[in-house]
User: What shape does this take?
Amino acid sequence: MIIAVDGPAAAGKGTIARALAQHFSYHHLDTGTLYRRVGLELLKSDGDIHDSRVATAIARNLHAYAWLDYELRTEAVGAAASIVAGIPEVRAALLDFQRNFAEQQPGAVLDGRDIGTVVCPHAEVKLFVTASPEVRAKRRLAELQESGADVSFEAILHDILQRDERDRNRAVAPLACAADAVIIDTSELTTDEAIAAAIRTAGSVR
Ligand code: CDP
Assistant: This one.
């Protein structure tokens, strides 16, 4: 049983995917962290963020790098992730790991941008979680402020819009809603309401 949860930045995918995994006792993979780790390593290396050769080498050896969770969550790393995510060889290097993860019993929830379209097109449940850019920026701002970051609403909104644009328009595995996905717009929903809607949808298929 595979549940694919896709959607734009800060729409609530992670919260929903974690809650689904907990509810059904499935494994959970936040695939964004894979791209974030490649982006973080490139930033740390002081190299060119657009260097596809280095990015691909990092993606192929991702297990060899250590990182701290809080380092991954910054918008700078999110932006770097969306740049390396546009490199076909980087995506290819991360594909097998994601597909193997998805095959685990009794089931798996994967969240990202291309899970329902490319990584697991045969997923039994596909959700596309979205929200207005302003709502998403407000949520991301609160999240970053909680971890002590000094950021403004305008800067976050700008980063999110730029990342959406890059993710939607790249040539390989762009952010897209699968034709058979159920859309959950969380703009007007509380966290509990969004989770309940996702569990209802997944439960009706399962
Ligand atoms: O948490 P947030 O939604 O802000 O981002 P994320 O899921 O951690 O993903 C960071 C970046 O990785 C995205 O902007 C995408 O460019 C890329 N990504 C991707 O291309 N494909 C995925 N399956 C997951 C993330």
Remarks:
- Residues 2-199 form a domain with the Rossmann fold fold (CATH 3.40.50.300).
- The radius of gyration is 16 Å.
